[in-house]
Design a protein that fits this description.
By secondary structure, this protein is α+β, with helices and mostly antiparallel strands. The protein has 2 domains: about 10-95, no CATH class; about 115-165, SH3 Domains (SH3 type barrels, Roll), CATH 2.30.30.40. Helix content is about 25%, strand content about 25%. The protein is built from 5 helices and 10 strands. The protein has helices at about 30-35, 50, 55-70, 75-80, 85-95; strands at about 10-15, 25-30, 115, 120-125, 130, 135, 140, 150-155, 155-160, 165. The strands form 4 sheets. The chain has a 3-stranded antiparallel beta sheet with strand order 6-3-10, with no helix packed on it. The protein has a 3-stranded antiparallel beta sheet with strand order 7-8-9, with no helix packed on it. The radius of gyration is 17 Å and the shape is elongated. The model has no long low-confidence stretch (mean pLDDT about 90). InterPro entries: PhnaA_N_proteobac, YjdM_C.
């Protein structure tokens, strides 16, 4: 069978899609399942351009959630194009708060969130200072350290301490 997210010809398995109807799941390949729970590889997800329009609502939800996690211009462009009805959008946004990542105010951070820097931060090795008030869009969570997130500032992907950000 063909994976509805990446269009690869691989064995499919049920993958739970939390936040929506009870026992909601989508049949996806093992590569997609591993990257949904781990670090996404940008080129693997090019198939989201078509899967975000799937008739299967669980596939739509997974597609939009992954687009929000990807830090690429093409993913942001697709997010601008997607239309979801109110119930589906609520499902997309209703991600279980399993994240241990908290901003400076104690608010839970999730992958794909937008944050603002609350102080000037010198970026080691990059030769610039990320200024207070800088918006960082579509953050990624560092899985093994709840005090670190990743985001793009001035075109460079950097690691940021959560104590220096505020969720938008």
């Amino acid at each position: 069978m063909t994976c509805p997210l990446c269009a690869s010809d691989a064995p499919l398995a049920a993958f739970p899609v939390p936040g929506g109807p009870a026992a909601a799941s989508a049949e996806i390949c093992a590569t997609c399942a591993a990257q949904i729970d781990g670090t996404p590889e940008e080129n693997h997800w090019r198939g989201l351009a078509s899967s975000m329009w799937s008739e299967d609502v669980a596939v739509q939800v997974l597609s939009v959630r992954m687009l929000k996690r990807l830090d690429a211009a093409w993913a942001r462009d697709l997010l601008d194009q997607v239309y979801l009805d109110e119930d589906t959008q609520t499902w997309v946004d209703n991600v279980a708060a399993t994240s241990q990542h908290k901003d400076s105010n104690g608010v839970t951070l999730n992958a794909g969130d937008n944050v603002v820097l609350i102080k000037d931060l010198p970026v080691k090795g990059a030769g610039f200072t990320a200024k207070r008030g800088t918006a960082v869009r579509g953050i990624s969570l560092v899985a093994d350290n709840p005090e670190h997130i990743e985001g793009r500032v001035e075109g460079q992907r950097i690691v940021i301490l959560t104590q220096f950000v505020k969720k938008k």
